[in-house]
User: Fold this.
Amino acid sequence: MNALVHAPGFGLALTLAAYLGAGELHRRLGRPALLAPVLVTMVVVAVVLEVLRIPYAEYLASVSVLTLLLGPATVALALPLLRSGRALLADRLAVLLTLVVTGAVSVTVTVGALVALGAPDDLVLTTLPRSVTTPVALTVGETIGANTTLAVVLTLVSGVLGATAGPWLLDRVRVRDPRARGFAIGVAAHGIGTSRALAKSDVAGGWSSAAMVLNALAMTVALPVVARAFS
Amino acid sequence: MGLTPPAPAGPARSARGWPAHVPAVLAALALLLGLQLLGTVLVDLTHLPVPGAVVGLVVLLGVGARFPGFARRAEPAGEPLLKHLQLLFVPPGVGALTQLSTLVQQAAPLALAVVGSFAAGLVVAGLLLQRLLRRGPGA
Assistant:
C-alpha cells in the first residue's frame, strides 16, 4: 500500500482521475457553476493527500508535468485571439479604451479596498495578479514576489463569480450586446467565465477569449509597475 | 466501388498543416514549447519584465496574423490545452488549500477587494464597450 501511495505517478494519476470524475459529475448535474470541475478536483486531491499523509512537496513533484504545460498553454492563448482578430481590429479603439479603463478601475478597487482595510503589503502583492488569467497570473506573481498559490485561488474565485453572478449583473445594468457581454466576462472572470461564455454563443465566447488575453498582456506590463509601490 | 479499400484520407498534408506522417499533437506541442523558449531567450536578452511564455504568445500572434498556416500547426496541442487549462491550476490550487488559514485571517479585505474589483471591472467593461461599439462601424 505504501509502495502504491508513494509511487512517482500516484499524484498525477490521482489528479487526472479526480479531474475526469469531477467533469463527469459536473456534466450530469447540468453544469452548476459552483461545482466547477477545477474546484471539486482541488478539494478531492487535498483531502486525499491529507488522509494518506502525503506531503505537498511530494505531490508537486508527481504533477510537475502539469506545471510544465502552463508555458505552452500560455503561448496557445494567441489562438483564440487570432480567430477573432478581424472583429477586434475593426473596433480597435473601442477595445483599447475599454481595456485601459477597466484595468485601471479593477486595480484601483483591489488596492484601494485592501489599503483602506489595513491589509499588509504582501497581501496586496498577492491580490494583484488576480486581475489576469491564471497561467499568466502564476508567472506574473512570481515576477512581482506574490504568494502564487493564494493568487491562484483568488483568480479561481473571480472565475466562479463571473460564471455565476456575471450574466446576472450584466442584465441588471442592461448590457445586451453579446460582444460587450463577452468582453466584460473575459476581462473580469478569465478562463472559467470564458468557458461559460463560449458555451452560450460563439460571438460572446470569441470576444471573451480575446478580452482575457488582451487583459493578460496589458496587466503583464502594468502590474510590475504597480507592484513596485508595495515591495 | 465497394471492393477497393478506402483511400488514405486526404492529401499528404493534413488540414492542421503538418505532413500526414508527423504526429500532429507532438509536433504542435514542440512548436508551442519552442515559442516559449524563444520568448525566454528574448526576455533574457532584452531584460523585459514579462514572462517568456507571454513573449512567445506575442510571437505566435504576430507570425500567425501574417501566416495563418503557422498558427494552424499549433492547434492540435493548443486547442486541447486551452480546453483543459483548468486542470493545470489544480497543483497550485491544492497548495492554496493548505494555506487556508491566511485566507481566513484576511477574509474581509480579500472578499471586498476581489468581489469589488470583479464587479466594478465587469460593469465598467460591459457598459463602456457597449456604448463605444454602438457608435463604431461594427454596430
Observations:
- The CA atoms of residues 64 and 70 of chain B lie 6 Å apart.
